[in-house]
Amino acid sequence: MIHVHITKEIKRFKGTEKFLVQTDFSVGAVTHISGPSGAGKTTLLRIIAGLVKPEHGHITFEGETWLNTTENLYLPTQARKVGFVFQDYALFPNMTVKEHLSFGTKDVELIQRLLILGKMERFIDQRPRELSGGQQQRLSILRALTTRPRLLLMDEPFSALDQALKAELVPDLKLLLIEMKTTCLVSTHYPLELKGFADFYFEL
Ligand SMILES: Nc1ncnc2c1ncn2[C@@H]1O[C@H](COP(=O)(O)OP(=O)(O)OP(=O)(O)O)[C@@H](O)[C@H]1O
């Protein structure tokens, strides 16, 4: 179980507001995080990854403490072993597709498998600026999987993919997550694209 109980001051155009989340997420499953624009989906994922610090709260992952503000405990992002798919991809401009993937793993079989999963085999020597938006987004998903993360956090990960690609990628990705025993929290405005992918639903 992932236990999350946090409060964070978030900036609104008219000042600040308290953002409170108190919930448990199932481990070994995919949870769809939904909510209107500005509800705090990105902020919640970044807090769980350790990229943003809340003022108060605690987060535990299968009994391991990641955050406890009362005891001043803060496990850094690298130690949480999470994979993150950012809304804006956050790729390295000077790295090729292959370099992005081998940055996370030396397992050539896994790299090959990921390239096939994302239909990226033909683009291994290309840099982000030479890729389409959908190819960049797929690369960002594949890169997050190279470390076989315990927890995969994905922020609008399929927004740039066409329907046909989504229909192929999403079920294959689900099977890989089950095989890797990776827990996944995914935010999207389009619940239909997570049909058969998400096991649980959490509304902010
Ligand atoms: N590091 C931060 N510190 C304080 N406030 C923040 C921080 N990051 C974002 N915010 C504010 O938190 C609110 C929620 O933003 P967030 O991006 O998490 O929403 P969201 O639900 O992901 O929205 P969208 O669906 O439009 O992407 C916004 O009002 C934003 O200005």
From TrEMBL:
Gene3D superfamilies (UniProt xref): P-loop containing nucleotide triphosphate hydrolases
Residue span(s) of domain ABC transporter: 4-204
A Pfam family it matches: ABC_tran
InterPro entries: AAA+_ATPase, ABC_transporter-like_ATP-bd, ABC_transporter-like_CS, Molybdenum_import_ModC, P-loop_NTPase
Keywords assigned by UniProt, alphabetized: ATP-binding, Nucleotide-binding
Domain of life: Bacteria
SUPFAM superfamilies with a match to the protein in the record: P-loop containing nucleoside triphosphate hydrolases
MF (Gene Ontology): ATP binding; ATP hydrolysis activity
Record-given protein name: ABC transporter family protein
Organism: Pedobacter duraquae
Taxon lineage: Bacteria, Pseudomonadati, Bacteroidota, Sphingobacteriia, Sphingobacteriales
